Amino acid sequence: TRCPRQAWPHVTVRICVPRRCSLGHIADLHSSDTTSLPGFENLTMGYNKYLRPYFGGEPVQIAMSLDIASISSISESDMDYTATIYLRQRWTDPRLVFHGNKSFTLDARLVELLWVPDTYIVESKRSFLHDVTVGNRLIRLFSNGTILYALRITTTVACNMDLSKYPMDTQTCRLQLESWGYDENDVIFTWLRGNDSVHGIEKLRLSQYTVERYYTLVSKSQQETGSYPRLILQFELRRNVLYFILETYVPSTLLVMLSWVSFWITLDSVPARTCIGVTTVLSMTTLMIGSRSSLSKTNCFIKAIDVYLGICFSFIFGALVEYAVAHYSSSQKCAAKAPQEGPANELTKEMEEVNITNILNSSITSYKRKISFTSIEISSDNVNCSGLTMKTHEKIKCVLRNKMHRIIGYFTIQNPSNVDHYSKLLFPLFFMLVNVFYWAYYLYF
């Protein structure tokens, strides 16, 4: 500041008038302990931070590059991911050209005095700039007017996921950068070096995913207010299925195999076979509930793991139903033999109490009853429907009754022990076939 001196009688007053200071405008100071920065005296003469470079002329070209520091979490329930990135933007402002071939790093707080692009992250849910110990921003000024503006940002970005093949899925997520207010007539976004503009993503180590590939795109966003430039970083994440194989697939498969143990236990061991069937069903139910609890907000998806658990549950429940059918058939067969064995037991008791004449009489009587009972069964099962005295509706009922007896006879299990014998072969065979189709479909289609 230059302070003119005015004198009054008996009083000498020095009035100091402050002079307007701006970035790089170093006034001439007469004090011997103040030095000026060469080349910056007239740097911002007439500079207006509210107007973009080349205002009213050609658009400003802004080149960007990214460093992906980390991807801390990928949430299937919220369908988003959280990443920490270093965003670097470069553009040229001819108003800031100065002599020399040096570059100067300025205090980050001086960014308030410069024009900067209004870049924002599309589909961002939450974002913040790091400010420990100071705001993590960088301003570097080059002699040709190029400005490097770097930021450290942590953002949570939406990522629409298709979980129909979970946990054998591959998800495609995007990080999109777009200008908020300046359309393509004002700014043009470009990647600084194409795919090489993105660093660090190939070195990431995620808990459930592996980065398959990534690539950069240049696009435009057509809005009602205009067409805005957009840069896209698209990367594919493949889920590591080994954890789920050990956590879910192997236990569910072992439970299915455990249910087959009941086929080697006799039908008379009701407690043993019932215990195995009920235990495996309850264990499978618990496993299904546990697998869905981690994705409670995405239960609307029918996922690949749900299909496999449903298959396993069906086989386990089928093994329990198989024992119920075999045991019921065995009990029905024993009940059919009981009337035939009953008279024989009575004859044995009578032989101890009556004489030979009574034995013969009782034998003849029981034999006649058997013949009459058999004839009644035969006549009831195969009724002759060709009688001339029968009416038409009675003949129809007779024919339908005979057909029903034949159909029931086809499904009647003659030997219940064969049910377990066939189940020992059919259950493992069908389970292996279903597994082949399951893994082939979800891994290759």
UniProtKB/TrEMBL annotation:
Q: Where is the Neurotransmitter-gated ion-channel ligand-binding domain?
A: 41-240
InterPro entries in UniProt: GABAA/Glycine_rcpt, GABAAp_rcpt, GABAAR_pi_TM, Neur_chan_lig-bd, Neur_chan_lig-bd_sf, Neur_channel, Neuro-gated_channel_TM_sf, Neuro_actylchol_rec
Membrane topology designation: Multi-pass membrane protein
Keyword Cell division set for record: no
Q: Does the keyword Phosphoprotein apply?
A: no
Q: Which GO-annotated molecular functions does the record name?
A: GABA-A receptor activity; GABA-gated chloride ion channel activity
Which keywords does this Swiss-Prot/TrEMBL entry list? Cell membrane, Chloride, Chloride channel, Disulfide bond, Glycoprotein, Ion channel, Ion transport, Membrane, Signal, Synapse, Transmembrane, Transmembrane helix, Transport
Q: Where is the Neurotransmitter-gated ion-channel transmembrane domain?
A: 248-352
- Name the source's superkingdom: Eukaryota
Question: Catalyzes what?
Answer: chloride(in) = chloride(out)
Bilayer-crossing residues are: 241-265, 271-289, 301-321, 425-444
Record localization: Apical cell membrane; Synaptic cell membrane
Main localisation:
membrane
One Pfam family linked to the record = Neur_chan_memb
Question: GO terms for CC?
Answer: apical plasma membrane; chloride channel complex; synaptic membrane
Protein family: Belongs to the ligand-gated ion channel (TC 1.A.9) family. Gamma-aminobutyric acid receptor (TC 1.A.9.5) subfamily. GABRP sub-subfamily.
The role this protein plays is: Pi subunit of the heteropentameric ligand-gated chloride channel gated by gamma-aminobutyric acid (GABA). GABA-gated chloride channels, also named GABA(A) receptors (GABAAR), consist of five subunits arranged around a central pore and contain GABA active binding site(s) located at the alpha and beta subunit interfaces. When activated by GABA, GABAARs selectively allow the flow of chloride anions across the cell membrane down their electrochemical gradient. Pi-containing GABAARs are mostly located in peripheral tissues.
Can you state the subunit structure given in the record? Heteropentamer, formed by a combination of alpha (GABRA1-6), beta (GABRB1-3), gamma (GABRG1-3), delta (GABRD), epsilon (GABRE), rho (GABRR1-3), pi (GABRP) and theta (GABRQ) chains, each subunit exhibiting distinct physiological and pharmacological properties.
This protein's name: Gamma-aminobutyric acid receptor subunit pi
Which taxonomic lineage does the organism of this UniProt entry have? Eukaryota, Metazoa, Chordata, Craniata, Vertebrata
